[in-house]
Write a structure and sequence with these properties.
This protein is α+β, with helices and mostly antiparallel strands. The protein is 20% helix and 34% strand. It has four helices and eleven strands; from the N terminus they run H-H-E-H-E-E-H-E-E-E-E-E-E-E-E. The chain has a four-stranded mixed beta sheet with strand order 1-2-3-10. It has a four-stranded antiparallel beta sheet with strand order 7-6-9-11, with helices on one face. The radius of gyration is 18 Å and the shape is globular. It starts with a helix and ends with a strand.
Length: 153
């Protein structure tokens, strides 16, 4: 990660697998390594432009690596956040829905880290006057850095 950042390389999720994809990937983890390229279309010039501008995220074994802003945008775009109810003290019960096939490892300050599985909804209590801020621990924007995302609701 640090070498790619230092030299301006785009992130690539690849493998040099010579065995069975089903055995090595599907049994251990349902999604194989891939490179997500965020381009306007599938033309070669547009794909090249996206790679030159580091608009890629590497995905491998449930982890994603890329530019912080791109990871943050992907997480925000793949989740829906809404207030389900507010109690008399102003504490809000917030429904957070993962709308993708990607799992996320989330950490909220002061709480136990948890897995946010694909296509699920979880409920989080947010005290009055506080924001919902999560660290996405299976996204890497540096060797030891994860994006921290403030969710809007």
């Amino acid at each position: 990660i640090e070498r790619a950042k230092k030299y301006g390389f785009f992130m690539v999720g690849a493998s040099d697998i010579h065995g069975s994809i089903a055995r090595d990937y599907l049994l251990a983890y349902p999604i194989r390594n891939m490179t997500m390229i965020f381009a306007k279309d599938k033309s070669l010039p547009t794909l090249r432009e996206a790679m030159d501008n580091n608009l890629t995220i590497a995905y491998a074994w449930g982890h994603m690596t890329g530019e912080k802003s791109l990871l943050t945008d992907l997480f925000k775009a793949s989740t829906q956040c809404r207030v389900e109810r507010t109690d008399a003290n102003g504490t809000r019960t917030v429904a957070l829905t993962n709308t993708t096939s990607l799992d996320y490892a989330l950490r909220i300050e002061g709480a136990t880290p948890f897995n946010f599985k694909s296509f699920t909804t979880i409920y989080i209590s947010v005290p009055a006057g506080e924001k919902l801020v999560v660290a996405v621990d299976n996204m890497w924007c540096g060797a030891e850095e994860h994006p921290v995302v403030e969710l809007e609701f």
